[in-house]
Amino acid sequence: TEPSFSRLGHVGAYIVNVPTPEWERKAEQQLEDDYELLDNMVLSLPSSTNAKEIRHTSQPRQESQWPMASGIPLAHKKGLSGYGVIVGVLDTGCDADHEEFHNREPIDFIYVNPANSSQSNLDRAAFDSDGHGTHVCDIIAGKKFGIARDVDLMVAAVITEGNYHSTLERVLFGLNWMLTRFNDSSSLDKPMIINMSLGVSASDMEQSYISQNRRLKALLERLMYEYEILPI
After folding, report:
1. Taking the C-alpha atoms of 206, 207, 211 and 213 in order, what is their torsion angle to the nearest 10 degrees?
2. Alpha carbon of 101 to those of 106, 144, 162, 213: distances in Å?
3. CB 138 within 8 A of CB 99
4. What pLDDT does residue 72 have?
5. pLDDT tens, 175-219?
6. Rounded to two decimals, what is the model's pTM?
């Protein structure tokens, strides 16, 4: 099998797929003088932690407003609702049929295929087979619980449900898609935030922390300084 590569122009990266260790060594010899090389590392949501059990109560939650201490009610009172801002979310997806997202503009959505990013699906309504991404999007822009209900939502499903894992390739593909959308003439004057609830485990970073961290930092700096995007 021959190696292959695809260009992600907006991110400023190439995805290089090599079938054998021998091909990997050849690719490194050819590329290392001109490019920063980064393994297709596994990224994941934070692992669960133990907490005290909270007993179920039959009393329904009545209060849907954010506490005054958060400052959010004051922002809403002043008319600050996120209108004209784009928020991109890289997560498990978002359930567009959830009641929190009824009667709003369609969510710009892509499902990044874990087996082959180039076969990702654009032509479908936003969905979430897990729920984590919907939870995140609700905090951001849900009509009842959202902080900024009028933002334009852009969602890339890059995290596999069940094990909460992703790969650098899927994240880069999702980022590149968002930057392509962001560069559309109708979006250029809008502030943009990209949320990624993702990290790399400490054990995976121990062997090459300095080089890996430097390269990931370069990616985030590209978002901030070349595109003026705030990555979270």
Report:
1. -20
2. 9, 9, 24, 36
3. no
4. 92
5. 999 998 888 888 888 999 999 988 877 776 666 667 777 778 888
6. 0.86
Measured CA to CA, the distance from residue 218 to residue 207 in angstroms comes to: 19
Angstrom distance (rounded) from CA 92 to CA 132: 6
CA-based angle 109:12:178, to the nearest 5?
Answer: 15
- Asked if residue 183 lies in contact with residue 55, where contact means CB atoms within 8 angstroms, the answer is no
Beta bridge partners of 86: 152, 192
The length of the chain in residues reads: 232
Torsion sign over Cα 82, 230, 43, 15: positive
Residue given tokens 């593909």 in the structure block? 173
Contact residues for 126 (Cβ-Cβ < 8 A; gap 6+): 93, 94, 95, 96, 106, 107, 109, 155
Beta strand extents in 158-216 (DSSP E only): 165-167, 192-196
DSSP structural state of residue 96: T
Extract the runs of DSSP E, i.e. beta strands, from the chain: 4-8, 13-17, 42-44, 86-91, 108-111, 152-157, 165-167, 192-196, 229-231
In the numeric block, the tokens 């699906």 are attached to: 121
Q: Can you tell me the distance from the alpha carbon of 102 to that of 143, in angstroms, rounded to the nearest whole number? A: 8
Query: For tokens 């979270």, what's the residue?
Result: 232
Instruction: Please identify every stretch of the chain with a pLDDT value under 50, giving residue numbers as ranges.
Output: none
- Looking at residue 224, what DSSP letter applies? I
pLDDT tens string 21-40: 999 999 899 998 998 888 88
